[in-house]
Amino acid sequence: VIRPEPCHICGSRIRFGKTAIKCCQCQLLLHTKCREQCPSLCSPRPHHHAWPREGVLADFAPSTPPLVPTLVVQCVTEVETRGLTETGLYRVPGTEQLVREWKRKLLRAGGALPALSSVTDIHVVCGVLKDFLRGLKEPLVTFSLHPAFLRAADIPDDAARDTALRHVVSKLPPANRDTLAFLMLHLLRVSHSPDCKMDVLNLSRVFGPTLVGHSSANPTPLAIMEDTPRQCKVVAHLLSLPPSFWRGFVETEQENLVPV
């Protein structure tokens, strides 16, 4: 190994100068010690099935609705399976190294993701989800619609604000809209768990910068300072919309959201 890369079986980095095994057909790379755990059959993996290391949300979305990336579905499913009794869900950080390793492993896997049940600490799964969303080339609400979301959240009248937010959500690219809806329903379930102690205000503080971000890839220091409280405001108001609104986007093909 000249350039250190992770083993496709265990996920640990194969260090410089170490001996590794690489399949000449499917390019699978693994430690020599992991050979016995390797599938006996393989097939060439076309490059267009692999996920990019970074991209816009649509680059990761499936081809059939609802257009929610498998990585997002699998993380959310795992969190809801065993994380809704954890205090500080999404606020308590997972081990940074494990978050990075698992995010890399999931991105390399493309559509066929390894099971997250082997991740002992559920906060690591939460960290992977947040890190994936933060790593997109543009935030979920998109650069072009960012000002419209901020303006809608500033409307003082509740009914007018809700109408404006619904309108802006409907203008999102389909993958962004479906994924936002899926995440909003998930965060509402987290907010309703008494054990998590993560109400809408806490969740909006965590997810404001992640989901709303800024109106450009390189915001000025002034824009960062001005945007931060408004990002939280947007997420808080989005979470105040009725669940039925969000379900309308993701429950048309609910069976597609069950991870394989």
TrEMBL record:
GO molecular function, one term: metal ion binding
InterPro entries to which the protein is assigned, alphabetical: C1-like_sf, PKC_DAG/PE, Rho_GTPase_activation_prot, RhoGAP_dom
Record-annotated Rho-GAP domain positions: 55-246
Ranges that cross the membrane: none
GO BP terms, alphabetized: mitotic cytokinesis; mitotic spindle midzone assembly; Rho protein signal transduction
Record's keyword annotation contains Zinc: yes
Keyword Cytoplasm: no
GO CC list: centralspindlin complex; cleavage furrow; midbody; nucleus; spindle midzone
Superkingdom of the source species: Eukaryota
Keyword entries, A-Z: Metal-binding, Zinc
Family annotation (PROSITE patterns): RHOGAP, ZF_DAG_PE_2
All copies of domain Phorbol-ester/DAG-type, residue ranges: 1-42
Gene3D superfamilies the record matches: 3.30.60.20, Rho GTPase activation protein
Protein name, as recorded: RGAP1 protein
Organism: Erythrocercus mccallii
Lineage: Eukaryota, Metazoa, Chordata, Craniata, Vertebrata
Gene behind this protein: Racgap1_1
